[in-house]
Amino acid sequence: MSRSNPIDGIRNPAARWFEWAGGDDGGFVRWYDKDAKLNVKASLPFTFLLLDELSTVKGWHDPSQSGVYANEVRDTRQDVLVVRSFKGGELASGIYKSIKDRIAAQGGHYCASLYLAYKEGDELKIGNLCLKGAAASAWMEFKRSAPTRKDASGRSLRAYFIDAVKIIEFEQLKKGATVYRVPKFSLQQVSEESNRQAVALDADLQTFLADYLKRPRTEASAPADSHEPHPAEAGHVDDFADDIPWRDEVETPVEEEIPF
User: What is the pTM of this model?
Assistant: First the structure.
């Protein structure tokens, strides 16, 4: 922080932290309402404009009965992750490939951290969607198969950076005795005004990320959202053995979809 650059620990601009619930009783996106202290189920299709994508680690640490979290990184092949649990301290530190097995043994898993613009009322806001396990694999496959399009300035970009992304439904799969549900993604054209708003939101996001990604790793590893999973959320497996399950203790309200 200085007189000419009065920025001191800019706060993460995400207003909501979404995730895919992929167990045999899932197949939907949800977010945690800290005021109401319950998970809110978003109706499908769930539509968003992708702003940026990072990687992190989340999960559940049984020995300390607390959630697992880590700093977010752009490149898991060269950026160091510092993995911690809320009550158990540091669990591992290093390049993802070198600590992957150690993380999995302690209840952590890779998470694709998608920063996005979502609609609330008539306004677009910044959110974050966590995809893990089979959901993260489905996302990667969707990106690989996405076509290339030209934006308003004539640049060739992958269509998921021009159109909106829509989770239209889920596919139910089975591995051994484990039944799980993965999201099915599609593209949807959006208005010029929605794209303009998304570009403005991304400018705010990049201001934050420019500050965040240069912070010391131990400082950056502080959880971006303050919601620590409840032990009841670790009661069953939803995707694969290294994934943290999600189970509601209360009814989850359903939000009405707002079109772009």
Answer: 0.85
